[in-house]
Fold:
Amino acid sequence: MKRRSLAFLAAGIGLGLAAPLCWAQTFPTQPVRIISPFSAGSGPDALTRIVAEKLSAIWKQPVVVDPRPGGSGFLAATAAKQAAPTGHDLFLADVGHLAISPSLFKKLPYDPKIDFVPVGGMFRTSFFIMVGANSPIRTVKDLIAAAATPDKVTYGSTAVGSPPHLGAAQLAAVSGTRMIHVAYKEVSQLNIAVSNGEIDWTMSTLATAGPLLRAGKVRFIAIADETRSASLPNVPTVEESGGPKGVQARSWVALMAPKGTPAAVVNTLNQSLNDVLRQSEVVEKFEAVGFVPYPMAPSALASLIDSDTVAYAAIVKRTGATAD
Structure:
């Protein structure tokens, strides 16, 4: 009986039947690459590198961040979609790439639900309305007043349909104003444009614009959320700053894997990621720049993507935002 069992097991291994178990025990067997749509030096990039360093220590393998900004995330998504489904190539994506773009674009080069499988949440944050240090706009009430003349006020974002873009479009729609949207490829270009007055405003995070804020080159006049940020408690909400109620620009960032990645590998990835996100050192570093770690199970991430896809479809329809 033992001989038969051993023979069957050997045959099973030869046929690859034991592969999922084997993968779970040995993963990763080579360097892991996180393909990112965010430019080097941006807030999400910096925080992802913190996580990558911690994962590398756990796995005893290099974990590298591969920034591929531009194209509304299409460049990074396509590269990740075409990667081998071994778990060694991952896709860093935010709510825009996974839940908003399907409502904005008539045709996407990827399908969030078909081409990828959820691995786990990374972090979440809210956006601040940011103007240049020399801007006459000091409150959201000032911003709306300046925008009373159609197409006079300009704002920027790095991706059509991203939370900052939709948040700004929502502000314009609710306030009954019409502002010009200017798209930039990289966040560094966008922030410089705001700081030197090339455009009037944008929505940004403390992690991304913190250096410019501390250098006195930009100002945060409001946070697009229901409550103030614990990191910058002196910055009012949009409503407190004289703006309309209900304008929000919040985002979350998650890790995805190419479709076909073994479930055992996804579970290993998720467990290691959640362990890192719960480390006190990581929590402190994230919170210092206004981000909150967002650990969750793959199934919870799948549910989040589904619910936000429905919610943002309604916002896109209400604001009239389009990318085509």
Summary: The first strand starts at residue 32 and ends at 36.
